[in-house]
Amino acid sequence: MYKIKFCFFSAIICFLTGCAIVRDMPRGLAGLSTRAVENAREDALASVFDYYYDTCYKKTVDILVQIQAYVYARPAKKDMLAIYVSSSDTTEVGIFFAKVGQNKTRVEISSLSTPAKERLSKRIFAMLGGLPDPEKKTLEEVK
């Protein structure tokens, strides 16, 4: 009986400690996995901004609040944000941050959905650059 328990627990420990898929499984089942946007990063749209890393990260979070995107994952390492386009559109988009110089930060936006990636990158990059939200209509456009 002791050998069976030992083998069983040894197998579980080996399985859980060495397999990233198992560690990501609970998040995947809950719909909170970032694996898809991480895998799509090679096709990300990117731009470099003249902000310190922390400033760029905070400004991006503020922009996401303004455009009503839903942040569903904010890893402790703080090098990415995983968002849904909105609370009703659960298209996954990843926003990655990389320090390029002392006061420059590279922002990459990835998604399996090309339209979502292009739309959000246009909005976020414009607003990080100090321009107004390109999707907000001005009073003149409404008239």
Fill in the keyword field for this structure:
single chain, 143 residues, alpha+beta, TATA-Binding Protein, 2 domains, 5-stranded antiparallel β-sheet, 6 helices, 45% helix, elongated
Descriptive account of the structure:
The protein has helices at about 1-15, 20-30, 35-40, 55-65, 115-130, 140, and strands spanning about 45-50, 70-75, 80-85, 90-100, 105-110. It is of the alpha+beta class. It has two domains: about 1-30; about 35-135, 2-Layer Sandwich (TATA-Binding Protein). A hairpin with a 2-residue loop joins strand 4 (about 90-100) and strand 5. Mean pLDDT is about 80; it is low at about 20-30.
